[in-house]
Specification:
The structure holds 2 protein chains of 2 kinds.
Chain A: H1 2-17, E1 33-36, E2 41-43, E3 52-56, H2 62-69, H3 72-82, E4 86-91, H4 103-112, E5 119-122, H5 127-131, E6 136-137, E7 139-143, E8 149-153, H6 172-181, E9 196-197
Chain B: H1 2-6, E1 8-15, E2 22-30, E3 39-47, E4 53-59, E5 66-70, E6 76-81, E7 86-90, E8 93-98, E9 103-109, E10 123-131, E11 135-145, H2 153-161, E12 165-166, E13 173-176, E14 180-185, E15 193-200, E16 213-217, E17 220-226, E18 236-245, E19 250-258
Parallel strand pairs in B: 12-19
Antiparallel strand pairs in B: 1-2, 1-11, 2-3, 3-9, 4-8, 5-10, 6-9, 7-8, 10-11, 13-14, 14-17, 15-18, 16-17, 18-19
Classes of the chains: A alpha+beta, B mainly beta.
Chain lengths: ~200, ~270
């Protein structure tokens, strides 16, 4: 009798925990076709077989500034590109709004902030940002070699207005990457991004 | 002696006067600190018109406003009460926060024994992100100065009127649905409900920008909420429910709605 009760309890717990969460299979990342700072037009499908990291960027956002001035994002870009990933920085700011950059000044602005992504994409219509539910800058997405969405959300567990130690935060991109490369499922595939609202 | 010390008086606050978009002042509801007698302090923000700061759950974007108390040894904060948040919408995204002069209340508990010589300096450090269309980060220090007494009874009255009321009488329950969940509640002796907004206390659970529809089913109100991808179901749905009535008045409640298991079948 006691055994039965325990079994029922375990079942109820599973049902509850699974309530709003994704299924076991990672959903497919939405494709895009966007003009890039390099002059190319890039699609997600161009990078089949590689890990792709998307970073939503607004160069005027103080939270983004904090992650660049502390060298947090520049170091992540370098680290993950060296690991073989493609790092695409996306600007979803509408023309005239904060963070909007032209093809001509995008890379100069990025380099001025110390950044070194693979390329910068211009999502002028905001369509790609909305397809990924990008709400804030910085927001980070990790896509697997088959185009599967592995992580989407905040850069780390430190949504602080104070200059609290970014480098002591738990970085969610690295956590997801390490879990995938250890053959484990991503423990938290989605979190709420923090920072400035994306300027659609 | 005790009665005199506990009498409701007021201490003048010494706020920082920085040329910032947001400044903070601290006020106490009592004139003197008495050993073992808890008292309330009010942390009043002054935000530049058109700008807003964020609630503890900032919504689709933003950063939670941080409060760090600086208390003498033996003192502690037993409760912090935030006013009812507001929705700020831009570009289809919704954040939760405050504009104008929001007041956060905190209950301070002094130690049982108070050394006359010991300092009773109470201070607070705050960090915020303040936004209109664009955002700025800022911080401020404020402290209490005891012994001077301009009347701030009205300040505490205003602060309390802006707090969500206890919502236990609403007997709220949460039920899972395909897209998220439904918040069920009861309101007796009130005008007909015209609309409702739920502000989830936890970030990353309920979509702030998804529409929330209220309907009435046999004496029970039901508010449909969309949950965010990857959100894990908590034991109860906690947060502030703001209800607008047919007579154009609004009321806000703090609710804790346990999830009913039967909802799992839907």
């Amino acid at each position: 009798m006691k055994k039965q009760v325990i079994a029922l309890g375990a079942l109820a717990a599973v049902v509850c925990a699974g309530a709003f969460t994704f299924g076991n299979r990672a959903p497919e990342a939405p494709d895009f076709k966007l003009a890039a700072a390099s002059g190319k037009t890039l699609s997600l499908t161009d990078f089949k077989g590689k890990y792709v990291i998307l970073e939503w960027w607004n160069n005027g956002c103080p939270v983004v500034g904090k992650h660049y001035r502390s060298e947090n994002i520049p170091k992540l870009q370098k680290e993950f590109i060296e690991k073989g990933a493609v790092w695409l920085t996306i600007v979803s700011s509408a023309p005239g709004k904060q963070g909007y950059v032209t093809t001509e000044n995008a890379m100069t602005t990025m380099k001025g902030m110390g950044g070194q992504p693979t390329d910068i994409l211009f999502d002028t219509t905001g369509e790609t940002g909305k397809a990924y539910r990008a709400t804030a800058t910085p927001q980070i997405v990790l896509i697997g070699p088959k185009g599967e969405m592995l992580y989407n959300g905040a850069i780390d567990n430190n949504p602080r207005a104070s200059g609290a130690a970014i480098l002591q935060s738990e970085n969610y991109l690295r956590r997801a990457w390490d879990e995938v490369h250890a053959g484990k499922p991503v423990s938290t595939p989605s979190t709420q991004a923090y920072g400035c609202a994306v300027k659609y | 002696m005790l009665a005199i010390l506990a009498a409701v008086g007021v201490a003048l606050s010494v706020g920082t006067m920085q040329p910032e978009r947001c400044s903070v002042n601290l006020h106490a509801e009592v004139a003197t600190v008495t050993a073992g007698q808890p008292f309330w302090v009010a942390l009043q923000f002054e935000i530049e018109p058109g700008w807003h700061i964020y609630w503890t759950n900032p919504g689709d974007s933003g950063l939670p406003t941080e409060i760090r108390w600086k208390l003498p040894p033996g003192f502690r904060v037993s409760e912090v009460r935030w006013p009812t948040p507001h929705r700020f919408e831009a570009g289809g995204l919704v954040s939760y926060g405050f504009e104008g002069a929001p007041i956060v209340l905190a209950r301070i508990v002094p130690p049982e024994r108070l050394d006359q010589a010991s300092p009773t300096a109470i201070g607070v450090e705050t960090d915020w992100m303040v936004c209109n269309e664009n955002c700025e980060l800022g911080s401020s220090n404020a402290g209490l100065e005891w012994g001077r007494a301009p009347a701030t009874a009205k300040l505490f009255e205003t602060a309390r009127a802006a707090l969500p009321r206890p919502g236990t009488a609403l007997n709220a329950r949460a039920v899972r649905t395909e897209k998220g969940c439904r918040l069920q509640f009861h309101l007796q002796g009130k005008p007909e409900v015209a609309g409702a907004t739920f502000f989830a206390a936890a970030s990353g659970l309920v979509s702030p920008s998804a529409a929330q529809q209220v309907k009435r089913e046999a004496g029970t109100y039901e508010l449909s909420l969309e949950t965010l991808p990857g959100a894990k179901q908590p034991g109860s749905l906690d947060g502030v429910l703001t209800v607008s009535f047919a007579n154009k008045t609004t009321e806000s409640y703090w609710i804790k709605a346990p999830f009913s298991l039967e909802g799992g079948k839907e």
